[in-house]
Amino acid sequence: MADDKEREDITVAEFHKKIKDAFEVFDHEANNTVDVREIGTIIRSLGCCPSEGELHDLIAEVEEEEPTGYIRFEKFLPVMTEVLLERRYRPIPEDILLRAFEVLDPSKRGFLLKEELIKYMTEEGEPFSQEEMEEMLSAAIDPESNSVHYKDYIAMMVIDES
Amino acid sequence: MGSGTSTQHHFAFQNAEKAFKAAALIQRWYRRYTARLEMRRHCTWRIFQSIEYAGQQDQVKLHDFFSYLVDHFTPSSNHERDFLDRMFTEDRFPQDSEMEKFGDYESIEVPDNYTGPRLSFPLLPDHATALVEAFRLKQQLHARYVLNLLHETRKHLIQLPNINRVSTCYSEEITVCGDLHGQLDDLIFIFHKNGLPSPERAYVFNGDFVDRGKDSVEILMVLFAFMLVYPKEFHLNRGNHEDHLVNLRYGFTKEVMHKYKTHGKKILKILKDVFCWLPLATLVDEKVLILHGGVSDMTDLELLAKLDRHKIVSTMRHKTRKENGKQVKKEEANQKSSAGRPTPWFLPQSRSLPASPLRLGSLQAHRAGRSSSIPCGAPRDAKELARQVRRSVDLELDRCRQQAGFPVSWGKEEASPCTPEADSGAEEPLEPTQEEWRQVLTIFSASNYYEVGSNRGAYVKLGPALTPYIVQYQANKVTHMLTMRQRISRVEESALRALREKLFAHSSDLLGEFKKHDADKTGLITFSDWAEAVESVLHLGLPWRMLRPQLVNSPTDNTLEYKSWLEDLAKEQLNRENIQSSLLETLYRNRSNLETIFRIIDSDHSGFISLDEFRHTWKLFSSHMNINIRDDCICDLARSIDFNKDGHIDINEFLEAFRLVEQSCSEGNASDCPQTTNTNDNGCSKPGTH
């Protein structure tokens, strides 16, 4: 029992340092606060993959009583530590991602046309902003066929991550 | 949250709107991907900033060194005294007759086959425009015209006050540009996008025209030409890089000598004087102050206006040795306030750099103070730009204006207008600010400053009522075609390379720290230990845990073999196997300062110094820095660096030993890079040295 507790303590300590590092990257004024708009980036770069809705809930937890537009580290740390300990918002495995694309391509062509991708990404789910859409298109679309071969696309993005 | 997440997702799919869920999944995944890219981008920027900051701290050491030589060092022989004098001859105040000689251009013949631009004086607007066009076509201005232009420039500058006063009733708009650092493409872009200077279009360039970029000469020619053509509308402020000693360190001197092999020295000499005559600040309608170093609680406009600015030759040395009879004695170059603290134009007082109280604050404190000499860049986010407005300093700005007797208006800043632009990515709309006070804007005009894709540049237009309107751009078209991912990768690689260099430079100390975390002598430490150790040695304040995957290739999940990691670093950096390793490391760490000192000693800019000079330099420098190296080691080192054994050291070869050819390597000329060789096996902990 004591061993387990010790192991958990070490883990918590590790998490604390990790969270602090990530937080500090966006702490532009070196006063232990970050703009609330950067919290999503911080959380995601710590290995979590929340949806926009889940992100909003999380932000609500770490915001001040009267939102200032800034999140303080003291509030962020315990909440984020719990998230990491509970392994919440796990990243999506490659095969699941592939299946998601296949759902959007019922005739199993192996690709999605640019217009189709735009339609799905900007009208369904938690829609992309115009900037997000443009950015995705720039990397995903093969200009010759004006389509995204999603299997290759996924493979390329995954390599990028490691 | 249940058992396997796979099952969970699968279950979700089986129900409800499949397409909706699928889209949401893809979006969720994609947003995480971009978040990680964003994090990498920020980390990269932090790396550059902290290394640049460390470089400036380095310069403080140089300044200390010179002060030490002036104040405390007693030469023990004529030889030493002569050597020292060589280091300080640059401080000599040029006599007018000398200036005439250096400005002599009439005797220089322009060959018939010269196809570059020609200038005749007095300059006309067409000449200046033609100059821009010629440079755009990569032509070079003949030395005769360069000297002629500099001569006329000097005559013009001498009559200007310290503070340019501009009024917008004459010109309809005024555009303010920041650091250009030799990046001609950015200047051409600005003129192209914003229009050439004219009586209706005023410009202010806020210093740091030279160094780092490769076309500093051309930028100066263009700026000086327009200044002569439109003296009422075109204004230049001096920056801290308009300084011959800084130029030795950051590349402008090299550029001049490379482009003008015969007349380069003359050009440099007259430039040194021209820089001293540049005005220090520009004031628009008595309301907007434009100053290279920004403002702080020490800024005093009255004092600034009264300085003898010509006496401030360099910010790297503010004293000079007084020699009886031999040299002209120069007084304290910087004016001091009654509290004994100088008020430089080039940097806010709160930063620690030459001629300011030397407070080596931490990088954190520095970031909190946010000075403007480090390129905050024109970041890609409008919101980041808005954040650069510092409320606290506005009060100081107003206070110092009160001091100078100017009326202060507390009007509310109107929201900056935004205009969509034809160029993709060229402009971004600005959020309206809520500031009640006047803003302080940091403007940096050198896009892609660190690396292609690293940042945008910006300029500010002051419209009616002097509301600022900011335009951002990136001069290199290549970046527009890259995806965000590709852009970030390139810049990141550049940053990481610089970081690895730094790590290498502290190999011995790192090994010591790692060993402390390895009590059981397993040869392994955890990633967490690694992060702690690295920060405690380098003090760069970087998010090491975020950077670790890019810096450490480790097969295991959580630990690394530190010795082999350090060896790998060395293999990347070292180039010569015959130079003893730990000494090399010490030199490496101080190479910027050493290079500067060498170039000062090499007063004829030949690129060579003698073995003796090298030994003397190193001895002086190392004793001041408390680096303990035995004499015979230094001799050995000097001899081994003298690669062709002729008693002289080629400065560039010496630096090449430290793989400072990264520029050409990064541009893909891998074959031009020297091959890596193995270093000594136990290089890192040689007994008896330091």
UniProtKB/TrEMBL annotation, chain A:
Gene3D superfamilies, per database record: EF-hand (1.10.238.10)
GO cellular component terms, A-Z: sperm principal piece
Organism whose genome encodes this protein: Panthera leo (Lion)
Key words, A-Z: Repeat
EF-hand domain location: 14-49, 92-127
Coiled coil: none
MF-aspect GO terms: calcium ion binding
InterPro entries xref list: EF-hand-dom_pair (IPR011992), EF_hand_dom (IPR002048)
PROSITE patterns (UniProt xref): EF_HAND_2
Protein name listed in UniProt: EF-hand calcium binding domain 2
